[in-house]
Write a structure and sequence with these properties.
Blueprint: E1 7-21, H1 22-25, E2 35-47, E3 51-54, H2 63-66, E4 72-74, H3 81-87
Length: 95
């Protein structure tokens, strides 16, 4: 390993929130109808050689996925994962 620095940082990127029905999504029948906020994060491990991105957030236009969860969305343009990556000095191949 020769003293080489592998990880430069671990980032939790705030990608907004969704609001779900607790009893239908998290607690299986307990507190049905109670809406709770669930934060959405992407996680980035940044290194000299490569970057690893985990859990890339939620596309606010993915209504087929979000509707059964109770679809209350607080995701704006700045919360999109590509914008959060720019905040830490990275860009995608699409940029």
């Amino acid at each position: 390993m020769g003293g080489k620095v592998f990880a430069q940082g671990l980032y939790a990127l705030d990608c907004g929130s969704i609001f779900v029905d607790k009893g239908n999504v998290l607690t299986s029948g307990v507190d049905v109808g109670k809406k709770i906020e669930v934060p959405v994060f992407a996680f980035l491990i940044k290194s000299e050689e490569e970057n690893l991105l985990f859990n890339t957030g939620i596309d606010p236009n993915d209504h087929a996925f979000l509707t059964p969860l109770g679809k209350g969305i607080e995701i704006n343009e700045e919360n999109l994962v590509l914008n959060r990556l720019r905040d830490v000095g990275l860009s995608s191949d699409a940029d």
